[in-house]
């Protein structure tokens, strides 16, 4: 079947992944509306290709050329869609930039997303791993999302429960993987806003600024300042933020490890399990600041792997595997990567 879609072939993805690794897509389609997704579904040749739904490319590791169709989601639009006694409901299209969306909500006087300022990427990708930072996850103010189901061609609305959010996890990494395209996300931003100051970094930054009663904007500014100091800017040095999830272990494992490593950073979880700081484990194995070929471990944060210039996705994957092996050998803890490997 012929189609009028602006598909490009053998398309470079180098500028479209924040690691800045060189890889190409067999076919590439910038998507600005849902009708184009339906057209892809109707086109036998395009529909037969493996698919990659791409937002800002800030949570993927391209280890090879992608042998299929990249759908680069650029659907735009932000609007307030409702209000009740408890919340203001704001809907953003999947192709909106996450940080710009957060700033938009703050400019409307709506708090709730400020701790998630400056996380790279798109609104549509935010639910995929339930993005989180500084004590907040999007599930905390998530209301619902609309998705396009590639298998049926239907548009569905999923509420919070249906998304099955967990720590850097959701149904989109499991049952709906490779099937759902998030079209828009609706947030319920609280009428009675309360500052989330669970993270010492944030309270210290506010104190340094002489702020004791912070507004959502104050918290956003503090988070932006902290993140700018701690994390490499992908425009300058390729990276995908935290490369590993913080591993979750049992209290018994934690106790055994503390016998050997009394300084070990650990956080008790409400369900009795314990989260370890992956960055601390990696640092203890001596990886911080090291380089392997053109891939490396960021000097200021052992959890961040970087492309020092010209690294391939395989270089970065090999470095990650070496780090995983060291941490497993020393601590008997398995580190799980956060970005999606392709
Ligand atoms: C410097 C830096 C700091 C970071 N800090 C944080 C942090 O503090 N907390 C955090 O949680 N993450 C963080 N990240 C990771 C990343 O920003 C988030 O995971 C972000 O949500 C990814 O968005 P993206 O649009 O770039 O997704 P992409 O990398 O394009 O895609 C990621 C995954 O989502 C899927 N996807 C993308 N868009 C859609 C859609 N519309 N529908 C269905 N599936 C889709 C893709 O197929 C892929 O599986 C950081 C990354 C960097 C580079």
From TrEMBL:
A Pfam entry, by short name: MurB_C
Catalytic residue positions: 168, 242 (proton donor), 338
Its biological purpose: Cell wall formation.
Subcellular location: Cytoplasm
Matching InterPro entries: FAD-bd_PCMH (IPR016166), FAD-bd_PCMH-like_sf (IPR036318), FAD-bd_PCMH_sub1 (IPR016167), FAD-bd_PCMH_sub2 (IPR016169), MurB (IPR003170), MurB_C (IPR011601), MurB_C_sf (IPR036635), Oxid_FAD_bind_N (IPR006094)
Entry cofactors: FAD
Gene name in the database record: murB
Domain FAD-binding PCMH-type intervals: 21-192
Keywords: Cell cycle, Cell division, Cell shape, Cell wall biogenesis/degradation, Cytoplasm, FAD, Flavoprotein, NADP, Oxidoreductase, Peptidoglycan synthesis
Family: Belongs to the MurB family.
Principal location listed in the UniProt entry: cytoplasm
Protein name according to UniProt: UDP-N-acetylenolpyruvoylglucosamine reductase
Catalysed reactions listed for this entry: UDP-N-acetyl-alpha-D-muramate + NADP(+) = UDP-N-acetyl-3-O-(1-carboxyvinyl)-alpha-D-glucosamine + NADPH + H(+)
NCBIfam families tied to this protein: murB, PRK00046.1, PRK13903.1
Cell cycle found in the keyword field: yes
GO terms for MF: UDP-N-acetylmuramate dehydrogenase activity
UniProt pathway annotation: Cell wall biogenesis; peptidoglycan biosynthesis
